[in-house]
């Protein structure tokens, strides 16, 4: 039996490693278990997000965005001549960024005194964790508190089984090392749209098959409508109501069979990315007598502060209810570490930003206009287009808008939705305002620097009451 810990965290993704660091900072003897190893047997920290998700995809998106900007630099008077992309170098740059960040997490563990336990973690009864190393050796550790942060894995579908080099999940999609002529994507969600954008910018013919009839069903309808229009202009061919029924591999081609409202169809591509969502990664995580229960969808059952039904055991991140977002997992990790240390901590699940990193970016926080109307909440709405922003014009980045929704009776901001070049950065302004219970008037009275794209947030707040300065306001119906 090894030393007893105050806290053992199972999983070193954005939820787990943040929880471990916070717990250690609060003076708790902390260990973090991670099963992922590299080719040399070293621990791979950071989870899906850092290694095969958020960070590497943003690296590729940024590289291809720069390529696209360079191709169209003549609008600024910059003459570049023919521009080419070295895809292998682009992928190598992505790998270097991931490697630096992984080493960074290891350094943070060392700096904060977090003990790394390499192996597969399994929760046993009585607040014990079994860690099974790569060689099969198992060690059992005791802890006063345990945080399960096992993350999620891609959902695979029987009609499109993964095939090395041809039919890929999100990890395989990040390692395509030459530009395919034709790319198929199953799923028009975050991963599908981002990966489709990467290759469309490099000249690939991209076809996205989405089984649902509605595009971006969880987004505000104005955002979904604007995004669909822009993606069509970018030559992303998004087919709605298109359900994959099978795949055939012929040499280096994939024939995708699908059905839509017109009947059975086929699509021939060089690469196929399967991006239909993710599911909790809980296989092998729980002993039968651990006391932790799963709900009907396989998520770990927790309360509003991430407590499981086993005393002293918490669960956070993608393996519990709520959006599968890295920042949600991290904040849950901090909340739980604070609770364990005896501090008051609560997380506001109503103010979690969502972002899709296409260009322009899609971002929102709070409720959509459709949700609020369905709940019977009377609202007032303000919209301001980036086409009316001087700074956006100067940046040649005028697609999109900021939409703000406020309560008709109280003026409190209930939701903000954006399509725009740096919407991922602007959405934090809305989240901060909502976290402090701001009204639209609060933002109307705030001084925004000029010229900035942030002024679009200010103008949208003014537009809520028909007072936007730099556009004509809609006349309110009497």
Automatic annotation (TrEMBL):
Catalytic activity, as annotated: N(6)-[(R)-dihydrolipoyl]-L-lysyl-[protein] + NAD(+) = N(6)-[(R)-lipoyl]-L-lysyl-[protein] + NADH + H(+)
Organism (species): Amphritea japonica ATCC BAA-1530
Record family assignment: Belongs to the class-I pyridine nucleotide-disulfide oxidoreductase family.
Superkingdom of the source species: Bacteria
Gene Ontology molecular function: any one: dihydrolipoyl dehydrogenase (NADH) activity
Domain Pyridine nucleotide-disulphide oxidoreductase dimerisation per the UniProt entry, residue ranges: 352-461
Keyword match Disulfide bond: yes
Keyword presence, Cytoplasm: yes
Miscellaneous comment in the UniProt entry for this protein: The active site is a redox-active disulfide bond.
Localization annotation: Cytoplasm
GO cellular component, one term: cytoplasm
EC number(s) per entry: 1.8.1.4
Gene: lpd
Positions of the catalytic residues: 450
Name assigned to this protein: Dihydrolipoyl dehydrogenase
Cofactor(s), names only, from the UniProt record: FAD
């Amino acid at each position: 039996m090894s030393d007893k810990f105050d806290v053992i965290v199972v999983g070193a993704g954005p939820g787990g490693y943040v929880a471990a660091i916070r717990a250690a900072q609060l003076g708790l003897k902390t260990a973090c278990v991670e099963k992922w190893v590299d080719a040399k047997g070293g621990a791979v920290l950071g989870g899906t997000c850092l290694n095969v998700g958020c960070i590497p995809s943003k690296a590729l998106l940024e590289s291809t965005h720069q390529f696209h900007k360079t191709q169209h630099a003549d609008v600024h008077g910059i003459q570049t001549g023919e521009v080419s992309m070295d895809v292998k170098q682009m992928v190598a740059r992505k790998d270097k960024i991931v490697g630096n960040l992984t080493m960074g997490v290891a350094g943070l563990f060392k700096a904060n005194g977090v003990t790394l336990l390499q192996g597969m973690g399994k929760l046993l009864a009585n607040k014990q964790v079994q860690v099974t190393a790569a060689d099969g050796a198992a060690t059992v550790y005791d802890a006063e508190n345990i945080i399960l942060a096992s993350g999620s894995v891609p959902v695979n579908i029987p009609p499109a089984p993964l095939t090395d080099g041809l039919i890929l999940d999100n990890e395989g999609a990040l390692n395509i090392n030459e530009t395919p002529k034709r790319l198929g994507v199953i799923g028009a969600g975050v991963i599908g749209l981002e990966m489709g954008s990467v290759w469309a910018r490099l000249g690939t013919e991209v076809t996205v098959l989405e089984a649902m009839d509605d595009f971006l069903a969880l987004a505000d309808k104005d955002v979904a409508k604007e995004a669909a229009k822009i993606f069509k202009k970018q030559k992303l061919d998004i087919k709605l109501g298109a359900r994959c029924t099978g795949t055939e591999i012929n040499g280096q081609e994939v024939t995708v069979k699908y059905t839509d409202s017109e009947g059975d169809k086929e699509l021939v591509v060089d690469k196929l990315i399967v991006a239909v969502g993710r599911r909790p990664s809980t296989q092998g995580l729980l002993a039968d007598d651990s006391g932790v229960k799963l709900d009907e969808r396989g998520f770990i059952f927790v309360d509003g502060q991430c407590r499981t039904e086993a005393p002293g055991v918490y669960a956070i991140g993608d393996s519990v209810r709520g959006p599968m977002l890295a920042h949600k997992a991290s904040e849950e990790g901090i909340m739980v570490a604070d609770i364990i240390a005896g501090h008051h901590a609560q997380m506001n699940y109503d103010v979690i930003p969502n972002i899709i990193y296409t260009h322009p970016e899609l971002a929102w926080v709070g409720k959509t206009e459709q949700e609020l109307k369905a709940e019977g909440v009377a609202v007032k709405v303000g919209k301001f287009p980036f086409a009316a922003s001087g700074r956006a014009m100067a940046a040649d980045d005028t697609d999109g808008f900021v939409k703000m929704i406020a309560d008709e009776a109280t003026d409190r901001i209930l939701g903000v939705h954006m399509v725009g070049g740096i919407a991922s950065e602007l959405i934090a302004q809305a989240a901060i305002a909502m976290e402090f219970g701001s009204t639209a008037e609060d933002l109307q009275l705030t001084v925004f620097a000029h010229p900035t794209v942030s002024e679009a947030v200010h103008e949208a707040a003014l537009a809520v009451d028909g007072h936007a300065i730099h556009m004509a306001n809609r006349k309110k119906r009497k």
